[in-house]
Amino acid sequence: MLMNISRQKKILILLADGEFHSGTDLARALGISRSAVWKQLQGLVDLGLHYSAVSGKGYRLDNLLELLDATKINLALSAQVRALISSLEIHDQIDSTNRYLVKRSLLNALSGSVCFAEYQTAGKGRRGRQWISPYGCNIYLSVLWRFQQGPAAISGLSLAIGSAVIRALKQHQINDIGLKWPNDIYSQGKKLGGILVEVSGETDGPCSAVIGLGLNLFMPEIQAENITQAWTDLSKITENQPLLRNQLAGTLLNHLLPIIAEYETVGIKAHLDEWRSYDCLSGNAATLFIGQQQFDGIVQGIDDNGMLLIERPDGSVQTFASGEVSFHSSELA
Question: What is d(CA 279, CA 190) in angstroms, rounded to the nearest whole number?
Fold first, then answer.
């Protein structure tokens, strides 16, 4: 379901082709004055979009923009995945796709509720961090799913989701990518995307999970100034080769939904070998932070429960269920 189109959204649709459009043409198309057009254009900067104004030519966006379109995403879906989706919403602006579906889960929203956003005002990363979410540039996606056996039955779900994301990207010939435990997508030592799974419900009974994915397609440098770690985006990895945003959104759902739907039955063990093949931390020196504690050593991959293995300086190997990993190598795939 697409939300009502605002004037700002209409002007973006007109400018999305990257061509120049005169102020007169824009005013006529929107049914507003030229001064009102200028005000709408100024509002685009607040969304992280920048434009050029050239006398005699008009206005154009500095970068091409492919807005999300439910029809185009649906065309990219397999019949199996269409059957798993109960609703697909595209929000022009939202605080957080995860937060939205968490609220919807409390109102008995169905499994397979899918939410995309063009722009997030309070995107969520791990441990309460902000996820930088400029308008129309990246993928901001959340899926709600209900499980019957409780949180323990979906332990390691974020690792399986990571494998699904890698599969989807490889389908688009994006190969220089890997996974950093527990839920980051990396390329050449830089963060490309992240996964956030939020679970609520009974300890031993039914629970709901909201699975969020943020994936950088094109990150404007001005917005990137607020990112506190090494980052990259698909435009850098593909050297600006065109990547259709709606097609990629559909491909991601094609890989994510089947894994989510069967996870309670198959668990993490069905995904261990694949995840290990994408592991870009194994063999690297790293420090794991848990609260104020830190543990140095060499990462030895994950165990059969998806927990991190670190060989400590004394030769012992410790197992960790959670934590924040800081690596020391710049050679990560």
Answer: 14
Element (H, E) at 12: helix 7-15
Question: What residues contact residue 218 under an 8 Å CB cut-off, 6+ apart?
Answer: 63, 137, 138, 233, 234, 235
Using alpha carbons, select from 295, 301, 268 the residue that is nearest to residue 180: 301
Element (H, E) at 89: strand 87-91
CATH of domain 7-61: 1.10.10.10
* 281-327: CATH class: mainly beta
Query: Taking the alpha carbons of 173, 169, 174, 268 in that order, is the dihedral positive or negative?
Result: negative
Q: Report the C-alpha gap between 38 and 18 in whole angstroms.
A: 17
CATH class of the 70-277 domain in this structure: alpha beta
Amino acid at position 291, single letter: G
Do 143 and 256 contact (CB within 8 A), yes or no? yes
How do residues 76-130 score in pLDDT, each as one tens digit? 999 999 999 999 999 988 999 999 999 999 999 999 999 999 988 877 665 556 6
Q: What is the pLDDT of residue 75?
A: 97
Q: How far apart are the first and last CA of the chain?
A: 38
What token pair was written down for 297? Answer: 């050593």
- Rounded-to-integer distance, Cα 193 and Cα 107, Å: 29
